Amino acid sequence: MKKKKLLSTLICMTITVGMLPTTAYATEDGTEIENQQVITPEQPEATQIPTTAYATEDGTEIENQQVITPEQPGATQIPTSYMVYCEDHGPVQMDLINDTFTIGKVEDSDGSYVCPITIATNAYAEKYSTATNKTHTAVEENITYNMTWTGTEWKAPEMTQLPVINVKCEKEVVPAAPEATQIPTSYMVYCEDHGPVQMDLINDTFTIGKVEDSDGSYVCPITIATNAYAEKYSTATNKTHTAVEENITYNMTWTGTEWKAPEMTQLPEIKVKCEKEVVPAAPEATQIPTSYIVSCENHDSVQMDLINDTFTIGKVKDSDGSYVCPITIATNAYAEKYSKATNKTHTAVEKNITYNMTWTGTEWKAPEMTQLPEIKVKCEKEVVPAAPEANKLPMGYMVKCMKRSFYHKARFMHQLPKTVTIGKVEKKGNNYVCKISVSTKSYAKAYSKEFGKVHAAIKPKITYQMTWDGKQWKAPEMTQLPEIKVKCKKEVVPAAPKANKLPMGYMVKCTKRSFFHKARFMHQLPKTVTIGKVEKKGNNYVCKISVSTKSYAKAYSKEFGKVHAAIKPKITYQMTWDGKQWKAPTYSNLPTILLK
Questions:
Q1: Are 170 and 159 in contact (CB under 8 A)?
Q2: Which pLDDT score, from 0 to 100, does residue 453 have?
Q3: Distance of CA 249 to the CA centre of its chain
Q4: Domains of the chain: which residue ranges?
Q5: For 551-558, which contacts have Cβ atoms below 8 Å and span 24 or more sequence positions?
Q6: C-alpha distances out from residue 588 to 285, 501, 502, 504, 584, Å
Q7: CA-based, 20 to 30 A from 166: which of 174, 306, 419, 448?
């Protein structure tokens, strides 16, 4: 019994051991070796660790080379163009903007080295807004892409693989229409036969239209009614014209901050055409002047009404582009009527007087009363001579400075225009005389200009008499004519110009011309100007202005982020006194501050 129990136990143990898992190993020919003892291996030696193998050109491998992580790409290696896109306005390709990119840290990605590049998008949204004249904002604050290390250099994605900078339209406020004071104030009116005439804007001839969007810009149509300009052109040319078109229209454009009108040369012309003219009929007798002045040198003038059957209405004719009609008045009847009024016998000096009436386009217009020729009569017994004509006066006068020196010599000066007043002929004793007055101011001015010294006349005028010898007027001998005496006038030297009267600023330019070295106008900087002493050059006072250039070079360097130095320590220019104020050269003539 004990033997059977022991046998059963051994059989159970054998079955149990056979059910335990075992490790199977494969030999080189693929057969398995089972029930081998599993032994945990020890750590490998350093010589057993795989090394990086590089292939040479002939295919041989070079092992155990150390792997070096590449440096970040330089700013000059990253892509310089990016696509900015709006769903409503389409794509715009833009250059890389300074200070908008960040170069990340080099890292291993799937066995390759990559470097992330991050582009801040706000500046591109602003630039896109300017390009499209519509306000946009970036959809995302940044875009990012990877540059990949090829083993020898960094490679960027192709342009088509770069991420797009997406922007979106901001809700815009439609600008109010321009004010009447903002539209152009001058327009060209043109006729093929009579040429152009520039005219000011006429009130109530313009209409400001409704603001609307045109190709991404806000525009406002301005319509000018042309009839009033055609009428004004007709008056200017004295020819009837009508407008070719009832209106002209042009657009004003919103820049984002203000309305801008086309240049004068871009505005449409108001075209007019000549109307076929009808020569007007001569004026009626009821249209000619009804009063005339009859004058005698020895007696008072008398205003008389038009006398029947003394006038002749002439033929209408063209004179310098205007229609005129001559009116002739026979004078004898007026001389007879004047004789009765003065109780002295008079005869007419001339048989007729003649004047023109002018056609305005709608009616005949006569000269004003003061413009009508007088009917001159003379006493029968004694003929008073007419006053001497200007060409019968002395040719000139002696001008003398009271200070006698080389620079203040006496000078004979020819008669100057508009300086002579011819008086009324009067009888003194048995002779007729005429008083002549000569204004001295112009002669003092001419004398000052000749000698370069300011002079003033001592008396406002000189006077002398011309005498009628029965046939002609006689002036005093040259030695008997009064002299025009002048005196030196003390000249006041102007004070030097104040700093606020100098130019507002100067042009600063780098001699290296590039995108980052543009010329800039800079306002006048404090403590950079030296105002010189006032000096006289020729007939003008001048003042030398010196401008230190160091501060401008520093400001220019700060603006462009590049250190610059002035080529010259200062620039200089002259301001000129015009008699009332200091005048600086125009900005185009001011010296430029050159940098390097």
A1: no
A2: 80
A3: 23
A4: 78-169, 180-274, 289-379, 390-488, 499-595
A5: 551/525, 551/527, 552/506, 552/508, 552/522, 552/525, 552/528, 552/593, 552/595, 553/508, 553/593, 553/595, 555/508, 555/522, 555/525, 556/508, 556/510, 556/520, 556/522, 556/595
A6: 65, 17, 15, 13, 11
A7: 174
